[in-house]
Amino acid sequence: MIGGVPRRVDAATKATIIDLVDQAVEEGWSARRATKLVGVGELRLRRWRSRLDRLDDARGGGSPVHGLLPSEVEEILALAEEWGPVDRSHRKLAHRGSYLGRVWVGASTGPAGLGQSRAQTPWSARPCPAGAQALAGLGHL
């Protein structure tokens, strides 16, 4: 095998590699030499052996702990309703939320909180200034 074993392989491939290394060890090879020849790390092979009954890869993802709580989304929306026209920025809203002691979220979290409710903010779609439209036609000099 050229380049070693890929990161994700199915259970049958893992079982075959384990059997191949075991057979090489039975014939007098060292485990280190056999795993190196096959292209799999010793630690990785040990992990596979420790869970022979469940060699299939688990689904990725899990349950993220960094998501917004429903109460945080509600508070972000309340702040946007109350202070949005003044602050005109999700970053400023996040800072205002912590300053007022109402919600503590990162400055880049505002769009996620506003996006979950599909709320349209009055400051999200600003009209293009008339002078900018004229300059847009000139292109780069």
Write the H/E string, N to C: HHHHHHH
Task: Characterize the biggest β-sheet.
Answer: none
Which spans have pLDDT < 50 for at least 5 consecutive residues?
none
| Range of helix content | 40-55%
Give average pLDDT, whole number.
77
> Helix/strand-derived class?
mainly alpha
* CA(first)-CA(last) distance: 55 Å
Shape: rod-shaped
State the total count of DSSP E strands: 0
Radius of gyration: 28 Å
Strand content: under 5%
User: What is the count of helical runs?
Assistant: 7
Task: Please specify the SSE layout and strand pairing.
Blueprint lengths: L10 H16 L4 H8 L3 H9 L19 H18 L2 H10 L10 H7 L13 H7 L5
Q: How would you describe the overall organization of this protein?
A:
By secondary structure, this protein is mostly helical. Among the domains are: 11-54; 70-116. Helices cover 53% and strands 0% of the residues. The chain contains seven helices and no strands. The protein has helices at 11-26, 31-38, 42-50, 70-87, 90-99, 110-116, 130-136. Helix 4 packs across helix 6. The radius of gyration is 28 Å and the shape is rod-shaped. The mean pLDDT is 77.
